[in-house]
Amino acid sequence: MANYFTWIQQFTETRLTRRLQRIAREKAQRAQKRTFKGELFSWLDAIVFAVIFVLLINQYIFQLYMIPSPSMVETLLIKDRVFVSKTSYGIETYPGGPKVFDSKAPLRDEIIVFYNPEYISKGPVFDVLSQIIYMATFSLVNIDVDEEGNMRERLYVKRAAALGGETIRFNDGSASISGAGQSLFTDESEFRETHGYSTAPHQSIEPSLYSGINAYGTLLGYQDAGLGSSAPQHVVQSYQKVSNYQGLVDYYQVDHARTRMVHQIDPSDMAARAAYARYERGIYVPHGYVLPLGDNRDNSQDGRYFGPVLQDSIIGRVVFRFWPLSRMGGVS
Fold this sequence. Notes:
It is a single chain. A hairpin with a 2-residue loop joins strand 7 (167-171) and strand 8 (174-178). The protein contains 9 helices and 14 strands. It is α+β, with helices and mostly antiparallel strands. The strands form 3 sheets. Strands 1, 2, 5, 6, 11, 12, 13 and 14 form an 8-stranded antiparallel β-sheet that branches. Strands 9-8-7-10 form a 4-stranded antiparallel β-sheet. Strands 3-4 form a two-stranded antiparallel sheet. The mean pLDDT is 86. It starts with a helix and ends with a strand. It is elongated and about 110 Å long. Helix 5 packs across helix 6 (233-240) and helix 5 (210-224) crosses helix 7 (251-265).
């Protein structure tokens, strides 16, 4: 019996050894038959899988984004690269599409990413394609540029400054805010300090320049009314003090002064009255909307110009800066 089991063991080992040798020969033969076409398809398969994986991550979990403008200086500088959480306010089913799981609304002071309301589309196919390329290349390639090669801002990054039911107004660059159901306005800097919000929002224009900025708007009002030569001399003199000024200009305040003068010249002009009242009343934020403002108030195209934005147009929240390495860290 012992000899029988010995024979079974030797027979099994021999068969297994031959089988392993045969498998090894077949693998070697297959390796020798590898062609350039086969290798190419193998690499393409790996690349396509990687791109799809990156797109899914960018679309549904987080997205890499490069800051294109100075509107958030000093919080975020031009060419800073940040992580944007795509799960904070719901998840888009596809770029620009409807959301799912959108139960959470943005909180005051969060730095949000949203679709630019003034963006001029080149067509839905181009819009989706440009976003796919941008996401698939980790924000390194952007084909959505203007005639001069500058990146067009389909997405904006701003701070959620006012929420539904609130009103915010501006005068000489300073903001004041009125809560829902309230009639009194509180200076924004005081409001932020009292409630422990970020003090990053700031003005860059010297307060002393606003007399000239208002004079510039007033002169534009006289011109709109066809009375350019009738402007008072003191207004002309105030403007002349800043006529050679080359810095930033608060165009929101310029238009405020312009509409005020047009209304004062002809109080019966209802269109002029409505335009002026918009500045005097301030910007009301309807429920379901957010008013986004840049931290660099005097150099930001923000909600002062295009108004509040729908919460559904907000696609994410900036949570972390990963480039440059010297400034890596959380963003608030």
